[in-house]
Design a protein that fits this description.
Blueprint (H helix, E strand, L loop, with lengths): L6 E7 L8 H15 L10 E7 L26 H11 L3 E7 L7 H8 L9 E8 L4 H13 L3 E2 L5 E3 L4 H9 L6 H28 L12
Parallel strand pairs: 1-2, 1-3, 3-4, 4-5, 4-6
Bound molecules: flavin mononucleotide.
Length: 221
């Protein structure tokens, strides 16, 4: 359980197909953060970090009759899968989204999971790590826009991890494996950026704790 002072951060694996590299990419991101923090980030005094695999939260294509932004002021969720997903997300203060790029965007599984809720995301903080042939920057940009749409604050640094062309992407796509050398290259070339993004996330969380954070909840589209 998270103590009252601790911040809860969820790491969301955005892809759900099998086979997939999402869990392996997520583990690498956590390994890089673990190597940077003085102590195990899973047992940190200031925050708890937990993985959320969308595969463990099977949601049909959005089927709520209610508008999530109207919950709980005007109405309430109807379906049990939405109530369960709402309880899961409501527990966290911030999120690290690890997303692949599919056809220049991010996966429908992730968009669907976001659309189910609104107030559970609103006013919270997000970090985005994307991956793809050239890093999945287009998916990252689209995800940032949507997260801002549910009134989240996205940290400025958005690491984008490139497979490289040819066999590197082919192995990921068909076998769900990162090709040899990719992890080492990402650690070497993208590790600092992942740590920087996480530092920005922690900074926002600490500003929130001290009451210094700007109010980004009121912006309208
Ligand atoms: C439907 C689909 C579309 C894809 N489109 C892109 C793309 O636009 N850009 C890119 O860099 N990679 C693309 N890829 C390759 C993915 O980056 C690669 O398959 C990766 O393994 C997907 O992550 P996952 O294994 O966690 O699902 C695509 C893969 C799939 C399955």
């Amino acid at each position: 359980m998270t103590s009252p002072k601790k911040k809860a951060i969820a790491v969301i694996i955005g892809s759900v197909r099998e086979p997939r590299v999402g869990p392996e990419v997520t583990s690498l991101v956590l390994d890089i953060l673990n190597a940077h923090e003085p102590i195990d980030i899973h047992h940190h005094p200031d925050y708890d970090l937990q993985e959320i695999d969308l595969k463990d939260h099977p949601l049909p294509l959005f089927d709520e009759p209610v508008i999530p932004a109207h919950v709980p002021t005007k109405m309430n969720y109807v379906h049990s899968h939405t109530k369960k997903w709402s309880e899961t997300i409501a527990r966290f203060d911030a999120f690290i989204f690890v997303t692949p790029q599919y056809n220049w965007g991010y996966p429908a599984s992730l968009k669907n999971a976001i659309d189910y809720l609104f107030n559970e995301w609103k006013g919270k903080y997000a970090m985005i790590v994307s991956y793809g042939t050239r890093g999945g920057g287009l998916a990252s940009g689209q995800l940032k826009q949507v997260l801002e749409g549910v009134r989240m604050k996205v940290v400025e640094t958005r690491p984008a991890l490139p497979f490289g062309g040819g066999n590197f992407t082919w192995t990921a796509m068909t076998k769900g494996e990162l090709a040899e050398g990719v992890k080492e290259r990402w650690e070497r070339e993208n590790g600092d950026e992942i740590v920087k993004a996480f530092e920005e996330l922690k900074e926002l969380l600490s500003e929130q704790s001290s009451g210094k954070s700007e109010n980004h909840k009121t912006r309208e589209a």
